[in-house]
Specification:
Elements: E1 2-7, H1 12-21, E2 27-33, H2 42-45, H3 62-66, E3 70-73, H4 79-89, E4 93-96, H5 106-113, E5 126-128, H6 131-140, E6 143-145, H7 149-163, E7 171-178, H8 193-196, E8 201-202, H9 210-222, E9 227-234, E10 241-248, H10 254-264, E11 271-273, E12 291-298, E13 303-310, H11 314-328
Parallel strand pairs: 1-2, 1-3, 3-4, 4-6, 5-6, 7-9, 11-12
Antiparallel strand pairs: 7-10, 8-9, 10-13, 12-13
Bound molecules: NADPH dihydro-nicotinamide-adenine-dinucleotide phosphate (NDP) and N-acetyl-L-glutamyl 5-phosphate (X2W).
């Protein structure tokens, strides 16, 4: 059994990790931390876990965490910077759900996050945990940077076009909608029911922190810089990301485009390319680790429209983190991750 610790067990991604891991056949949960809820039984705080775990929250303690085989960080940025190296030195592996190790360039990270990078010494060993791109490196990794939620949906939606050099030089557009759980469980005015329901708004149009992360991934796929306009929106749903991606290429057909995506993802357990003409809904992935994609081509204009949906807390965070753990430890990649989406 793989001994698992979680730092940050009271946030949405932490409790989502718990929901997945209590049913994982190869995992024994050993430590779950919270500074504010020390001593509280996890199942008392989250009754959905009653009967599944007897653990109590404890304050983060490197020695205790170091007795685990792997430690997940489900914490705000900066926390893994402060603790990851010490934990790695104990021999445990680290899977970080925050943005701390996603950007390869520490200066760029500092620019976007408004503080110096706290662990540049271990940054080079971090592997970007997008299995559809980096599966081989993930197998050897000791430190994983789990991709952000928007970057997962946008990169999976655009990779086949960029890897096949179909787009030339052009401005790509990612028009993305997120559910409110993407903002975390911490209290904030923008997440209140009266603020977020029955309304929708764009935000961070000037520049969102996920822009450099998406650009970095698209550049790797294309082998050159890629221009991208990325506009996130807050929508009145709890979970889900819907990305509508716009590009153009002449000389394609709907059939060729469809075949390109079907071939690229034929062996991917968590990417589902839907039949031509489909419109994936976020509810079709809610609670599951699947990214569902549909591609559309307007032959008259050369317009490509890719629709990509994920659950921000699963393929966009905790499910993808567990997928990485499965790959790192040589387990079945879908172990613990076979949940079918909830309908309605
Ligand atoms: N929500 C989402 O859809 C996604 C989130 N992420 C990222 O995952 C991370 C967690 O997100 P989310 O679950 O939403 O966050 P929350 O704000 O909901 O939870 C944060 C957790 O971290 C703990 N924590 C906060 N500060 C510290 C600290 N200094 N040391 C130790 N523990 C700390 C908190 O517990 P306590 O204060 O009691 O210790 C809490 O359990 C973030 O980096 C986020 O950006 C990534 C993809 C998607
Ligand atoms: C709806 C909403 O607020 N979404 C969050 C998404 C991000 C997230 O959690 O991303 P990181 O892991 O990169 O911090 C945001 O836009 O900041």
């Amino acid at each position: 059994m793989i001994k698992v610790g979680i730092v940050g067990g009271t946030g949405y991604t932490g409790v989502e990790l718990l929901r997945i891991l209590v049913n994982h056949p190869d995992v024994e949960l050993k430590v779950i931390t919270s500074r504010s809820e020390e001593g509280v039984r996890v199942a008392d705080m989250f009754p959905n876990l009653r009967g599944h775990t007897d653990l109590q929250f404890s304050v983060p303690d490197v020695q205790k965490l170091g007795e685990c085989d792997v430690v997940f960080f489900a914490t705000p940025h900066g926390v893994a910077h402060a603790m990851a190296e010490e934990i790695l030195n104990t021999g445990a592996r680290v899977i970080d759900l925050s943005a701390d190790f996603r950007l390869q360039d520490a200066d760029e990270w500092a620019q976007w996050y408004g503080q110096p990078h706290g662990a540049p010494g271990i940054l080079p060993q971090a592997v970007y945990g997008l299995p559809e791109v980096n599966r081989e490196q993930i197998k050897q990794a000791r430190l994983i940077a789990v991709p952000g939620c928007y970057p997962t949906s946008v990169q999976l939606g655009l990779l086949p076009l960029l890897e096949n050099n179909l787009l030339g030089e052009q401005m790509l557009i990612a028009d993305c909608k997120s559910g409110v759980s993407g903002a975390g469980r911490g209290a904030s005015v923008g997440s209140l029911l009266c603020e977020a329901s029955e309304s929708m708004m764009a935000y961070a149009v000037k520049g969102h922190r996920h822009l450099p992360e998406i650009r970095q991934g698209l550049k790797r796929a294309a082998g050159k810089e890629v221009q991208l306009t990325f506009v996130p929106h807050l929508t009145p749903m709890i979970r889900g990301i819907h990305s509508t991606l716009y590009a153009s290429a002449s000389g394609l057909t709907q059939e060729k485009l469809q075949a390109l995506y079907e071939q690229r993802y034929a062996n991917e357990p968590f990417v589902d390319v839907m039949p031509a003409g489909s419109h994936p809904a976020t509810r079709s992935v809610k609670g599951s680790n699947v990214c569902r994609i549909a591609v559309h081509y307007h032959a008259a204009t050369g317009q490509i429209i890719v629709l990509s949906v994920i659950d921000n807390l699963v393929k966009g965070a905790s499910g993808q983190a567990v997928q990485n753990m499965n790959i790192m430890f040589g387990l079945a990649e879908n172990a613990g991750l076979q949940q079918v989406a909830l309908l309605p």
